Amino acid sequence: MSILAVTGATGFVGSAVLAAALDAGHQVRALTRRPQGPMEGVTWVAGDLADTAALANLVAGAEAVVHVAGLTNTPDPTAFEAANVTGTANVIAAMKAAGTRRLVLVSSLAARMPALSAYGASKARAETLVEASALDWTTVRPPAVYGPRDIDMLDLFRAAKWGVVPLPPGGATSIIHADDLADLLVALTGNAAPTKKQIYEPDDGREGGWSHKELAQAIGQAVGKRSVLAPHLPRAVLDAAAAADRMLRGDRAKLTPDRVSYMAHPNWVSRFDRAVPPGIWQPQIAGPEGLKATAEWYRRAGWL
Predict the structure, then answer these.
(1) Which of 189, 201, 248, 296 could staple 270 via S-S, CB 3.0–4.6 A?
(2) Residue 277 is part of a domain; what is its CATH number?
(3) Which residues form the domain of 117?
(4) Global pTM?
């Protein structure tokens, strides 16, 4: 029975990876910044990405490391460097010291366009570190990830409930359910040659992704609306909204200037030439099915 080490295991994607790893029969070592209750098959390692002793304990004797932890949004763009770049460098150093060879890095489609956002730039630098590491690495760039417990797309579901989903300027995006992404990440921890030193861009199997309006309508249908009003907002309006969010919520603001820069780009569709080979993984949860199930979970949890 192999041991998988997982960073970010208490977050949205990481918790799905934890469940997928246990379902696949692995033992898991999971890094956590806060005390966790006992979980069968899981050894919690107290610490964070800056704690070199914790990282050493995390990766020692592990078959592979799934590096999920990272910062996706912050009012302070300089914080991306410490979390996403230095944190990844620390994971690599710990793996080299322990002799652990296999690394699966969770990056982002934002890494394709590092000039657009500080977040994307930090993910691109993390990828560069991994590629130069001499480890047996695979990098996964997920598109928009959704599913139960997700808070990033929750606002879209809440807006759709009222029949209006404000959109960024026209464009298209791919999506993927967290459970599908987790199954992929666990599958990649094996040593199959085609997965090594590759960058993959998975999705829900919808060719060409979703136009913003298509996705808004699909979310509307998931919450029980036959149709929703989905206006495209100009970049200037989004910039003003980000400034207002910072004034209202301070450091808890979700719509930041950095995120606006990312959102305003017209093409976040996963590339077909970076698709995962079907023999390794295929998505199981189609968009409409997954969005409906997510809406139902939000309702049960009292979030919607």
Answers:
(1) 201
(2) 3.40.50.720
(3) 3-145+176-206+269-285
(4) 0.96
Max intra-chain CA distance, the chain: 56
> 203: pLDDT confidence band, cut at 50, 70 and 90?
very high
Going from the C-alpha of 271 to that of each of 42, 117, 189, 202, 214, the distances in angstroms are 35, 20, 22, 8, 19
Q: pLDDT class for 298, splitting at 50, 70, 90? A: very high
User: For residue 9, is it within any domain?
Assistant: yes
Let me know: does 15 contact 75? Beta carbons within 8 Å: no
Residue 141 resides in a domain: yes
Residue with token string 């023999």:
279
Instruction: Report how far residue 184's alpha carbon sits from residue 275's, in angstroms, rounded to the nearest whole number.
Output: 12
In a domain, 138, yes or no: yes
The answer to whether the beta carbons of residues 119 and 73 sit under 8 Å apart is yes
DSSP three-state, residue 114: coil
CA distance 187 to 124: 23
In a domain, 251, yes or no: no
What is the domain count for the chain? Answer: 1
Return the closest-CA partner of residue 186 out of 107, 131, 104.
Answer: 104
Res 1: pLDDT? 59
Cα–Cα distance, 220 to 191 (Å, whole number): 41
By residue count, the chain amounts to: 304
Backbone angles phi, psi at 139, to 5 degrees: -110, 135
Tokens of 33: 């910044």
pLDDT number for residue 126: 98
Mean pLDDT over 223-232 rounds to 95
CA distances from 297 to 88, 182, 217 (A): 33, 18, 19
